[in-house]
Write a structure and sequence with these properties.
Helix content is about 35%, strand content about 35%. It is α+β, with helices and mostly antiparallel strands. The strands form 2 sheets. The protein has a 4-stranded antiparallel β-sheet. A two-stranded antiparallel sheet has the order 2-3.
Length: about 100
């Protein structure tokens, strides 16, 4: 099993929305993915509640049966659509993938 962890820092304003609004939009779109991408075994999204100089604004934790499933997820049109929006509203991104 593979765990895929992504963290983002968001722009204060982007796409005509505030950081908080964009975090909510991204969270909702990510949480809709398991219904259309069956190889997502687990998906959790958290919005940071206690900001500091070192914190990120949001975290995504997903689990897949295999690296192949993670690779399929990466190119799935539903995921790509969410990712394209995130790219417009984020300032930075960090990723960690590891075996369970």
């Amino acid at each position: 099993m593979i765990r895929h962890v992504v963290m983002w820092q968001f722009k204060d304003e982007a796409e005509g929305k505030t950081k908080a609004e964009n975090c909510k939009i991204v969270k909702e779109r990510l949480e809709a993915l398991p219904a259309v991408i069956p190889y997502i075994r687990r998906l959790e999204v958290g919005i940071n509640e206690f900001s500091s100089a070192m914190s990120f604004d949001m975290v995504l934790i997903t689990e897949f049966d295999s690296k192949d499933d993670l690779d399929l997820y990466a190119v799935n049109p539903n995921h790509v659509k969410v990712s394209e929006y995130v790219t417009k509203v984020r300032t930075s991104r960090a990723v960690v993938d590891y075996s369970l």
